Amino acid sequence: MAQNNEKQNKQHQYFSLEELKEKESILDNENTLKKEKKAHLTFTAFLSGIEPKLQSLDYWLYDNDSLNEYLAKFWLGARQSDGQKYKLNSLSSMMYSLNCILKRHGFPGIHKSDDFIASRCAFEAAKCELVKEGKGATQSAPEIQHRE
């Protein structure tokens, strides 16, 4: 029986709760945190610009309906500081970053929840608009032509 326990210990490594928390914190790497901070600042700047009378810019305190409405407006109206529209990859990155922030505050995922259908539809419309304007995914090199 002692051999079975030794075999199990060699096969599996056990972690304390503190070790697990430490490993989780490694997942929040610098780049991810930087992107989340940028998305947060961009969204709060947007909110303060369209709704200057808002009592709080802490959007994670809003109810789902209000947040859904503000996100829908954001996806369609988001602009860089020079007034240009964001590229599709940047807008998508902001969506994922805001989703992470909101999930940490107990919201359902904005990608899948029925509470955020209008927001997703607006994002898809913005996506189509960006692709039409040439701000979609990076273009690949032209296809190689074979000599005959």
Describe this structure in words.
- With 148 residues, this protein is mainly α.
- It has one domain: DNA polymerase, domain 1 (Orthogonal Bundle), CATH 1.10.150.
- Helices cover 60% and strands 0% of the residues.
- It has 6 helices and no strands.
- It has helices at residues 2-11, 17-27, 30-50, 64-77, 88-104, 117-132.
- The longest helix is centred in the N-terminal third of the chain and has 21 residues, at 30-50.
- It is globular and about 55 Å long.
- The chain starts with a helix and ends in a 16-residue tail after the last helix.
- Residues 1-8 have low confidence and may be disordered.
Rg over CA atoms, rounded to whole Å, is 22 Å
Overall structural class, as computed from helix and strand content, comes to: mainly alpha
The tally of beta strands, per DSSP, is: 0
Point out poorly predicted stretches.
1-8
Distance between the termini: 72 Å
Helix content: 55-70%
Largest sheet: none
CATH class wording: Mainly Alpha
Mean pLDDT: 82
CATH architecture: Orthogonal Bundle
Instruction: Could you tell me the CATH topology label.
Output: DNA polymerase, domain 1
> What order do the SSEs take from the amino end to the carboxyl end, as H and E?
HHHHHH
- Counted up, domains total 1
